[in-house]
């Protein structure tokens, strides 16, 4: 079976991708691991062109809101208020620190700041986090905000903070303590979100930068609500915690699009397991949804364009267990019959681009095929037993970038904070 492919050598080879994206409002850019250099550099190359040539306003990533917003605020200033991009990215000190604290992202941040200096403040490209893990960091940000504002949300914020205080900064301790009892902090964080929303509704902030300040206060409250729900669901097991997380990320993406106006356009950087439509994988049998599915349902398939990524062999940054120091690990050659092996055989070691609308002439591709997914925890010797997601590729993505041989990401020397989300993922990521 000979598949239609396009060459992928330089940024100029991305022309067919831009043409296929057309007027889509949301472009989802995946990755088959969180530790592969080429996934980050090719996403950067495509994102730069989409920002410059098609007016995309922001990049939203699989990262925590407070850390990403610190980067967002810095890259929108006329002059640097940070020593260097690498120093700025040390804000990402939650394990796995390498996901956003790496030299590839430092190069993107440097470009975004230079690009933004040439734009009016209202048109500067943003960098935001979609994830739900930052419970305590978001609570602390809310306290700083309401105490500075001196508004009616102060009491609600202090009640929420006091509710979590007995558990220190450990979300797993909180989750284990309240998962099977009636006493939890759900009412407190919900009341806090309601109070902040009332305050924002009565405000008359003008201009994107002014609206962002209020938006981030409300967003931190939303993170607190959904993080509390997420950690409780993780202890109980099943698909609930995954779905809480991805629905939160989709809700955040929708809020960001609304913040930037009816003509806004978003770039999303997340793992393939989040951006590739879950309905066309075995995730659906587990009752799991993801951002790719939810975005298509919310905005329509013509307004959402998903790009998957993958490789045949190489190296990757990952940990051997949750919380372990990162290592450079080998990525073995993909086994026979997998998507990656099929592309390697056809392209004979070259990189390539594929488009789903060109693959529909091949009825065999309507059947699921194994597609590699490497998480932050990885054991190469066991890869073939759990790292391949059965996927109908031409439905899961709109386009696919295949890099035959990849290299490990280049992490920054960031010291990881001792507190981290517990390792209770219900799915490979």
TrEMBL record:
It comes from Hymenobacter jejuensis. SUPFAM superfamilies: EreA/ChaN-like. InterPro entries: Emycin_Estase (IPR007815), Hydrolase/PRTase-associated (IPR052036), UCP036794_erythomycin (IPR014622). Signal peptide: none annotated. PANTHER family: ESTERASE, PUTATIVE (AFU_ORTHOLOGUE AFUA_1G05850)-RELATED (PTHR31299:SF0). This is Erythromycin esterase family protein. One of its GO terms (biological process) is response to antibiotic. Coiled coil: none annotated. It holds the Pfam family Erythro_esteras.
């Amino acid at each position: 079976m000979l598949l239609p492919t396009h060459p992928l050598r330089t940024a100029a080879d991305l022309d067919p991708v831009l043409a296929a994206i057309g007027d889509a409002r949301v472009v989802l850019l995946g990755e088959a691991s969180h530790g592969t250099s080429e996934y980050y550099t090719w996403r950067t190359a495509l994102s730069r062109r989409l920002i410059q040539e098609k007016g995309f306003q922001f990049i939203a990533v699989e990262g925590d809101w407070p850390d990403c917003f610190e980067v967002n605020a810095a890259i929108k200033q006329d002059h640097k208020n940070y020593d260097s991009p690498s120093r700025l990215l040390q804000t990402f000190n939650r394990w796995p620190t390498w996901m956003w604290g790496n030299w590839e992202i430092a190069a993107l941040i440097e470009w975004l700041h230079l690009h933004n200096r040439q734009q009016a403040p209202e048109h500067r490209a943003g960098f935001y986090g979609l994830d739900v893990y930052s419970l305590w960091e978001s609570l602390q940000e809310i306290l700083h905000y309401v105490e500075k504002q001196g508004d009616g949300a102060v009491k609600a914020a202090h009640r929420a903070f006091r509710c979590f205080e007995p558990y220190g900064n450990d979300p797993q301790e909180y989750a284990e303590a309240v998962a099977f009892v009636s006493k939890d902090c759900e009412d407190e964080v919900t009341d806090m979100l309601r109070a902040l929303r009332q305050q924002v509704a009565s405000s008359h902030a003008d201009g994107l930068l002014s609206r962002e300040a209020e938006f981030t206060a409300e967003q931190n409250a939303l993170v607190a609500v959904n993080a509390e729900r997420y950690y409780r669901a993780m202890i109980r097991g099943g698909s609930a915690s995954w779905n809480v997380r991805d629905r939160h990320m989709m809700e955040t993406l929708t809020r960001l699009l609304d913040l930037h106006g009816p003509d806004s356009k978003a770039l999303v950087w997340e793992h393939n397991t989040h951006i590739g439509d879950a309905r066309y994988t075995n995730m659906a049998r587990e009752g799991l949804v993801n951002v790719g599915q939810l975005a298509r349902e919310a905005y329509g398939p013509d307004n959402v364009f998903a790009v998957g990524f993958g490789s045949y062999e190489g190296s990757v940054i990952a940990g051997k267990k949750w919380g372990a120091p990162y290592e450079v690990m080998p990525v073995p050659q993909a086994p026979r019959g997998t998507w990656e092996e099929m592309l390697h055989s056809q392209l004979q070691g070259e990189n390539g681009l594929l488009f789903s609308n060109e693959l529909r002439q091949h009825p065999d591709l309507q059947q699921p095929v194994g597609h590699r997914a490497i998480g932050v925890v990885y054991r190469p010797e066991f890869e073939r037993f759990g790292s391949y997601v059965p996927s109908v590729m031409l439905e899961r993505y709109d386009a696919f970038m295949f890099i035959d041989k990849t290299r490990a990401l280049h992490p920054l020397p960031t010291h990881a904070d001792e507190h981290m989300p517990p390792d209770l993922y219900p799915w490979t990521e």
